[in-house]
Design brief:
- InterPro entries: DUF1622.
- This is DUF1622 domain-containing protein.
- Keywords: Membrane, Transmembrane, Transmembrane helix.
- This protein has 157 residues and is an all-alpha fold.
- The protein has one domain.
- The chain is 74% helix and 0% strand.
- The chain has 4 helices and no strands.
- Helix 1 runs antiparallel to helix 2, helix 1 runs parallel beside helix 4 and helix 2 runs antiparallel to helix 3.
- The longest helix has 36 residues.
- The protein starts with a helix and ends in a 19-residue tail after the last helix.
């Protein structure tokens, strides 16, 4: 097995991991949303949880798929056509990732103070769910953090 085959197999593995991350993220988003509804937090909160968690999962999957595309450059034949196709795929996935981040955070990625990956956002959603479950079990009412940005007073172009 030569080095090109190894990198081709690694790229395929990354693609599978990226797709798996999106599927698992979808399941997590549905479960968290259902748990939110079960705690009687309201449909708007459940939708917000579903939307932000699902977007985070897609963002994580896209980041992994871009890594797979970059690995694929190692194994691709050095033709202009292949390079342009691969470059176009990376650009599309990057623009998609940026638009999802802007939708989730309400800020341009280069303007936010702290970089947050899709995986970190999913972990935060799970942490909020665990905290809300503990508060519900102990009988206290938790004020849930709104995960959807309020763009009503935004001054951004």
């Amino acid at each position: 097995m030569d080095i090109e085959e190894v990198f081709a197999n690694v790229a395929v593995a990354f693609e599978a991991i990226g797709a798996f991350a999106m599927v698992v993220g979808f399941v997590i988003a549905v479960v968290l949303s259902a748990r939110s509804l079960n705690r009687k937090e309201g449909g708007a909160q459940a939708f917000s949880v579903l939307r932000s968690t699902l977007a985070s999962a897609i963002l994580l999957g896209l980041e992994i798929l871009v890594a797979a595309d970059l690995l694929r450059t190692i194994t691709s034949k050095p033709s202009v056509e292949d390079a342009l196709i691969l470059g176009l795929i990376v650009v599309i996935r990057t623009v998609l990732s940026m638009s999802i981040q802007i939708e989730l955070e309400g800020v341009l990625p280069w303007r936010r103070a702290m970089l947050t990956s899709g995986g970190q956002m999913i972990a935060e959603a799970v942490s909020r769910d665990v905290a809300a479950s503990k508060n519900t079990a102990s009988g206290t009412v938790a004020v849930s953090k709104n995960t959807a940005p309020d763009n009503s007073a935004s001054t951004q172009p």
